[in-house]
Batch of 3 targets.
Target 1
Amino acid sequence: MARTGFCDSKPLLDLHMKERRLSAQTTEGVIMGFHEDNRMGSADECVAAPPALLYPHSLQGLPSLQTLVPSLLRHEVETALEKLSLIWDRPYAWDMFLDMMRTQTQTPLSNADLPHYFTNAARAILVDWIIQVHELMQFQEETLYLAIHLLNRSLRQLKVSTANLQLLGMVCLFIAAKKEESLLPEVSGLCSLMDHAYAKHQLLRMERKVLCTLKFDLSHCPALHFLLIFASVARCSAMVVWMARYLLELSLLEGQCVVFLPVQLAGAALCLARRVLQEPPTPEGEAAWCLASSIHVGSETALLRIMQILASAAAEAHETCATFIKFSSPETMHVSRHPGLKNTVALLGVCS
């Protein structure tokens, strides 16, 4: 599977992981590719194709612009990280972004690892419930993405009965909140949200079990961060960003999306959102979009596959879905109710 990041200095070449090789994609050394020898389960056909740029535009044939890209792209990424409050010290922003691109490949998942009794439909129901609890608790968005990431990993390493799946979901959200939030609910309050189907000691015992199984590794760079960085570099409108965030959250409910990297999910969601909304282009906007297109995130086949999954999910989203409700509010510009999302044929046609 293609893995990609950014690099413009030779010392960073020493940071590549075992069984991965770092290779430059341009003479400027800005776009770097992570390649992994081992493929991931059923996603082989989606990721084995030759690499492609995130967006349909290309910098090829523009030597003068290519000369500016290394420093300009780095500046834009650093500015985006600072504006989004994702960094505290700008001199280290670029290195942090490189680390984000690299560490996302450390815990690859495969659909084949799911327990036989845990279908995609059952998983979607559980994730939807977690999203409802997350909204009720008014947690940060990062907490939700981390909770689903921990759930995906736990389901592949823990033997959990169907009767304890809700408990596992709540524990993953609780652990994520401990890492991301400053204020936490009482354990007894979490039990009440599960109609006291589980006692306090059961929740705490499951928490210890999950933490020990995952070896206390709670590191995760959410796809949301990549999406916001790309959107900032590309100068996307608020409507495009909210639409992309809606599509990205829908990906949490799709078991098929588990095998893809966060950066791939973010890129596909943003690209699909922009195409669905079809906002009139401006010279400044197109130039920024062209710059963002130099961020290389994987094969074209994988990106188009993700876009197809998200298009279908958006077209089939029901009004009772927690994510649909969340993104139907005025604060989110009612993006989940956008008429373009219901035209499945048109959406899939755009992606093909």
Target 2
Amino acid sequence: MPLSAAPQTQLFPFERIVVLLSCALSFLGSGLLVGTHALWPELRTRPRQLLLYLSLADLLSAASYFYGVLMDFGSSSWDCVAQGALSTFANTSSFFWTMAVAFYLYLTIVRGSHSSAALLCFFHVVSWGVPLIITVAAVGLKKIGYDASDVSVGWCWIDINSEDRVFWMLLAGKMWEILAYVTLPVFYLLIKKHINRAHAALSEYRPILSRATDSQPRTSVADKKLVLIPVIFIFLRIWSTIRFVLTLCGSPAVQNPLLVVLHGIGNTFQGGANCIMFVFCTRVVRNKLLSSWCCFRSEASEDSLPRPESRALSRTSSLKDWGAQDTDRERDEFPST
């Protein structure tokens, strides 16, 4: 069954609310990751620098999806095309940065290679440049537009009436998504295997090198947690791939409400999931946030309290109202201004 023959997937109010909430949480989570990177220079390690760029892509993606779900487009209007272009660029860039993080971890943890400026420059050229070229080509050839929510959840992507829509759906996202499914687990397994082997070797020599057990391993806690990015990515993105395959097959299951909600959450919540893992579940960052919040609350409380002079005048006035007789002692205790 051709894609154009498939009926439009109707979005129920509860589906839109859930996906909009997911977009908002992802936007806030990505913003928090960017904020922690900007506020605390000591956290600006190379792995977290890569996470910063991934968060920027997820932030743009969440914002564009939020607008698309909110509008629930029914035609290829100008704002539909603009939203589709932005989400295509940000979403594809997120794919590339996710693979860049996994590749970087493989090089540093498994191969023991030191990161260089040239490697980071390569990541920038590929992760920003390739999505930009694809997006500009898709907009120039008028391939982005209304897609009947069969391969989206209210937002615009590749025009459902385009004759070569399958090719552009693959080029503008699905091909890179499927490639990530293949490459990320390989990197993930190699990294985990190397870490487990290192732990086994350390345990073997622990009786001899007792001091070595007190030292930090070569890979930091942040590096180890970054290994989980591929797992988060696959768990969240798999639902959109399932709907894409069902759409190609013309299956009515593509309109299943549960699948639609999972697709909407999966495409929009990566920024929120990364924030939970690398802010709230990372002790150093969590402690800094709590410390900053406590300092803010303390300063706010101090600002809300009356000044000593104001407290003195208030207490003097109160005592006079209640008929206090020892005015000389009160004057010595609370000097007049």
Target 3
Amino acid sequence: MTANSNISIKLVRNVPSGTPTIDDFQVETVDAPTKESLKDNQILVRNLYLSCDPFLRGRMTGSRNSYVASFEPGNPIEGFGVGIVEASANPDFSEGDIVTGNRFLWETRFVTNSLGFVKVSSGSGISAGSYLGVLGMPSFTAYVGLISISNPKAGETVLVSAASGAVGQMVVQLAKARGLHVVGLAGSDDKVDFVKSIGADAVINYKTTIDLDAAIKQAAPNGIDIYFENVGGELFDIALKNMNTFGRIAGCGMISQYNATPETAYYIKNIMEIVIKRITISGFVVSDYYTKPDYKNFIQEVSTKFKEGEITYKLDEVVGLENAPQALLDLFEGKNFGKRVVKVSDISDKQ
């Protein structure tokens, strides 16, 4: 890659339902933006890390009835990222600033207006990649769902789906710090071991367990007070059977259903449990909370605990922007182990 060329990842077509494939993406080499191309208040950013998140699947559908706009075919993919400013026509940003935000184009370099981009610092135990990981959107999602929405109390039991994932691993650790009994669900023996290592009291491999309902009852003999929902489908149905009266469910996603068609979608059988047990189900979108005190509280608590070694966080790093489409698709088959990011370049690169 030379200084005057860029890799650009674009969506070829909308995929309203079913499973996207690698052919739905196009990897191009295009001319790189230059300092001279900047207009007032624009910045030129070189990507360091890009975030692979399940919600990006929803942006591929072409739907106009969602909380976030769909991608336009022929345009670069866009999402969360961390990058370095290489040139600026905005007095609030300088060359060398590290920035993060949710409008990072999947290109080696890109030019954008600076609205929504935030300067962050690296060093002192916090790397640039940390702003997509331990201090990133999925971790804040864990904080909002568990703390802001579920109002946990010491001694309660929480069931965490996808407990080794980007959100789940933070839910486990925040729950243990508050004295909860934590039961995790994970999809491989390696993931089970990891969830145990970060403090879960019991972990179930839901892919190999013959009777998941019985396994949850054994791991949580006093029932489930809080269910943190990342997966949906049959797991959600079984969780409903095991909820306590006045239980709370925080739903940030249902990845098992993102590629479902009307024929393959899972339909809940235990829905009456919501009424019988007076269960509160709260779906939420984390972007609603960035302007609330919750975000400041999250950064303060988690950064402190991370620097002091009280919280760990597993990044699943794929190297090379050209590998980003497959890195994203792997999420829907559970091939990631931890928070999936794509490393595009190093801070020191002078390409």
